[in-house]
Automatic annotation (TrEMBL):
InterPro entries: L-lactate/malate_DH, Lactate/malate_DH_C, Lactate/malate_DH_N, Lactate_DH/Glyco_Ohase_4_C, NAD(P)-bd_dom_sf. NAD(+) binds at G15, A16, G17, D18, V19, G20, D40, N101, V124, A125, N126. Belongs to the LDH/MDH superfamily. The lineage of its organism: Eukaryota, Fungi, Dikarya, Ascomycota, Pezizomycotina. The keyword Oxidoreductase applies. Pfam families: Ldh_1_C (PF02866), Ldh_1_N (PF00056). This is L-lactate dehydrogenase. The active site is at H181 (proton acceptor). Keywords: NAD, Oxidoreductase. Residues 10-148 form the Lactate/malate dehydrogenase N-terminal domain. It comes from the Eukaryota. Residues 151-280 form the Lactate/malate dehydrogenase C-terminal domain. One of its GO terms (biological process) is lactate metabolic process.
Length: 282
């Protein structure tokens, strides 16, 4: 993507809470779009976040502009990141949020219509797989243009844990968490490798890993963080910004994102090629 096209691209973020603001900050620190629109019915909070985030654009490495926007404007952006929704409380599962967040999603998408034909919707709110499915129904956009963050963050967590055990950089680990972003997620151990060498063969002599324990730690990491600080925002902020970059720069990188699975009739995460059209190939 050229510098001029970056400057004209727009990303809208629905929801000015911790997650939305952290995604915006990640997009500022690793400049992707020329303009970021923050959309939230709580105007006082939205405007305060815009002012705070705008201060971060003056670090000398970006020309990104941050401003308040409307739902109608969001529908005309290159990407709409949907974080708006009820927070997951202590003791709640992600699926406990379905009722509240489905209604919020329906209203938000209705307010954004009509969408620009090539707009990409990126769902971050939970339960992300279910909301990705409903967003596809409500928006009437092609299914490949509506995706969710899925198990990308879980995969990043898994790779971090494996890297620590193996004593290598996380970038050298190739492993995926697939399925639902939730209790039924699973690690595709048969695909796990280090530098292209199957995991079990790549580990140093005497180094053993407890696969069940690692899978459980990966699955429970978000809950552990929330029990201590009340929310998770930095990890998902980085992951969402990475997906936005893959889309706008048409990187065609393989990511475990939530997408429509025709043969199953649901949205869940499998390795998918992500580019300017969304899920270019599942």
């Amino acid at each position: 993507m050229s510098q001029s096209s970056k400057q004209t691209s727009q990303i809208a973020i629905l929801g000015a809470g911790d997650v939305g603001a952290t995604i915006a900050y990640s997009l500022i620190m690793n400049p992707v779009a020329g303009e970021i629109l923050i959309v939230d019915p709580k105007e006082e909070v939205r405007d305060a976040q815009v002012q705070d985030l705008s201060d971060a654009t003056f670090h000398g490495n970006t020309s990104t502009r941050v401003r308040a926007g409307t739902h109608k404007e969001a529908g005309q952006c290159d990407i709409v990141v949907i974080t708006a929704g009820a927070k997951q409380k202590k003791g709640e599962s992600r699926t406990d949020l379905i009722g509240r967040n489905k209604a919020i999603l329906d209203s938000a998408i209705s307010d954004m219509k009509p969408f620009r034909p090539d707009t990409i919707l990126l769902l971050v709110a939970n339960p992300v797989d279910v909301l990705t499915y409903f967003a596809q129904q409500f928006s009437s956009l092609p299914k490949h243009q509506v995706l969710g963050s899925g198990t990308f963050l879980d995969t990043a967590r898994l790779r971090g844990i494996l890297a620590s055990k193996a004593g290598v950089a996380a970038s050298s680990i190739d492993a995926y968490v697939l399925g639902e972003h939730g209790e039924s997620q699973f690690v595709a151990w048969s695909l796990a490798s280090i530098g292209g060498v199957p995991l079990d063969s790549a580990l140093e002599k005497g180094v053993e890993i407890d696969k069940k324990k690692i899978a459980d730690e990966t699955r429970g990491k978000a809950t552990a963080i929330m029990e201590s600080k009340g929310a998770t925002n930095y990890g998902i902020g980085g992951v969402a910004a990475s997906i936005c970059k893959s889309v706008l720069f048409d990187e065609r990188i393989v990511r475990p994102v939530s997408a429509w699975q025709e043969e199953l009739g649901v949205c869940l995460s499998l390795p998918a090629v992500v580019g300017r059209a969304g899920v270019v190939r599942g």
